[in-house]
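Ligand-bound model needed. FE(4)-NI(1)-S(5) CLUSTER with Oxygen.
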Amino acid sequence: MSKRNFPGDPATKEMRSVAEDLSIETIWDRELKQQPHCGFGTLGICCKNCNLGPCRIDPFGEGAKCGVCGADADVIAARNLVRHIAAGSACHNDHGREIIKTLHLVGTGKAQGYKINDPEKLERLAKEYGLETSNKDSIKLAQELALRLFKEYGQQDGEIVLPKRAPQKQFDIWRKNNLMPRGIDREVTEALARTNMGVDNDYQSLMMHGMRVALSDGWGGSMIASDLSDILFGSPEPLRAKANLGVLKEDQVNIIVHGHVPILSDAIATASADPAMLKLAKEKGAAGINLAGVCCTALEVLSRKGVNVAGNFLQQELVLVTGAVELLIVDLQCIMPSLPDVAACFHTKVVSTNPRAHFPGSIYVEFHEEKGMEIARKIVTMAIENFPNRDKARVCIPKESRDMVGGFSTEYIFKMLGGNYRSTYRPLNDGIIAGRIRGVAGVVGCDNPKQNSGDSHVALVKELIKHDVLVVQTGCAATACAKAGLLTPEAAFQYAGKGLQEICEAVGMPPVLHLGPCVDNSRILTACCEMVKEGGIGKSLDELPVAGVAPEWMSEKAIAIGWYFVASGALVVFGTPFPVHGSPNMTKFVTQDVEAITGGKWAFEPDPIQMARVVIEHMDRKRQALKLKPMMYQ
Ligand code: BF8
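Prediction:
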C-alpha cells in the first residue's frame, strides 16, 4: 500500500494510490486541474442567462457593477441561486414522479415483480389525500392514489397536501408569506421563468419564490418519493450491513448498483438472489453473486434489504479500480461521466438504464417496470457472463469495511423509543427536556474533494455526539460515518457524551441514526413534526433545538434540501457557501434576514469542529428560549 498521504478513509487512500500507479485519472486529479476555481462563479456574480452577456460584476474595483441589462450583483446572485434550487428540486420531484408511475403500474397490474409491501402506509397516505379507502383493496387504492399524486404534480393553484403534516404555526408562516407550494411542477417551471432576463428583478422576491420551490421538493416530491418507496418496497426497519470497498468479494460476481431511484435497484437485488442466476454464476466459476451499492441507490437497498454499501460519491471510480467489478449498473443523479473511461481500464461493463441519463461508453439497456424482472435478469446475466473475463492478477480489493446499522424511519423511531405497545417519541422529548440530549442534528449531503473527502463528516459527527447531540443522517454523509464505525450502538460508548450514551444504552440504538438516501431527508422533517406533536419542546419546527449540516455538499440537490430546511425553520450550516458572497445583500438575506420570515437561516463554516460549535450554540439558544434545564453532564 502507498505511503502517500491522501485524505479520506483507509480504503479510499489505498485505492487512490492504486489508481495513481495505474495512471487512471480520478476526481481528485481533475479537481486539482480546475484550481483555482473561477472567482466570479464562486461569488455568484457571473450571469449567462441571455446573449447580452455573459456578464460579470466586479466585486472589488471600479469595474462593472451591473450586467448589460442592468442587473446588479443582488439580482444576478439571486437568479443563479433560484436556478440551483429549481434544478435540485426538479431532480427530487422527478424521482418522485418515477415512483408514482410505478405505483400506477402496480395499480393497473402492469408492473412485473412489484407489489404493495406496506398496505397500511398506503391507506394512511390515501386518507391524507382525501381518498375514500373503505372497501377498496390495495391495488385499486394504489391506482387512485397514483392518479391523485400525478394531479398534484400538475396542479396550478391551491396548496399541495403534505405540508399539512407540519405544526400549525409553521403552516401559518408559509401561508402568510405566500410560500405554500401550489403544485409540484409549477414551482420549478415558474422559477425558470422568473429568472429569465427581465422578469423578476428583485432579489428578495426571487428568494421568496426559491423557498417555495424548495418546499415543493421537501414537503412534495421528496416526501412523496419516500412514502411511496416504503409502500412499494417496504418500510425500513433497522438491519446490520457493512460499508466500504472491502464488501467486494474476490471469488464472486460483483455487481454494483449506482444512482438514486429504487425501482431498478430493487429488481436487481431480487434477480441477484434468484437460484437460477446463482446456478449460472457457479457454472461460470464464481462462488456466488455479490450485490453492493454506491451513492443513494445503495442506501435504498441497504435500508430495505441489508445490501452492503461499497462506497459513497467520491468512491464510485475507486470501486472500479479494484478490478473486481463485473458490472456497474446506473440510473441517474450523481453518476460521474468519467465512469465508462475508468471501467475501460478493466473488464468492467457499465450499463446505463434510464432514458433521461445517457453515458457514452456504456451499454444502454432501457429499464421498464412492465418488464422489470426480465430486464433485471438480463443485466445480472450480463454480469455473470463477464466473470470469466476478470483478470485475477489485477484485482485489488481493500480489506477495509465496517459494521453499520441502517434502516431507521420516522415510524420506526416511534417503535424503538416506545416499544410495540406504546409507540411514542416521548423518551426523545424527555431526553431533550431533561438535558440528556442537547438536540438533534441532521448531518447530510455529499463528500467533496474540495473539502476533506469525507473526513469533515466524521470529525463533525464525533464532536456533536460527544456534546450529547443525537445525529440523524442520510446520503453520502451517512456512508462516510458508517465507514468510520459511527453507525453502531457500540459507538455510543466510544464517542458519545454521558447523557446521549444513557439514552442509546436504554433504547439500544446508535448515537447516529441512518435514515436512508437523500430523498429521505423528508423523514427528518416528519420526525421533527412528531417531536413538536409530542410536546414540551416548542410549538413549531423553528423552536426546536435542531439543525441541519452539509459539510461537503456539492450537488444542486443539496442546495434545494438546505433551503427546504431553512424555509421550515431550521438553521442549516454548509461547509462552503453556495455562490452568493459577491452580493452583500444576498449574503445578509440568507444568513440573517430570512430568519425573521421562516425562523430558519444559513451559516457557512469550513472547519468541522467550529461547525459543531455553531450547531451547539444554536441548540443552546433554542434550549434557553424554551426554558429547558441545563445539560445534565456538561
Ligand atoms: O442524493 S449525498 S453525492 S449520492 S447529492 Fe449525490 Fe450528494 Fe451523495 Fe445521493 Ni445526495
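The first strand starts at residue 46 and ends at 47.
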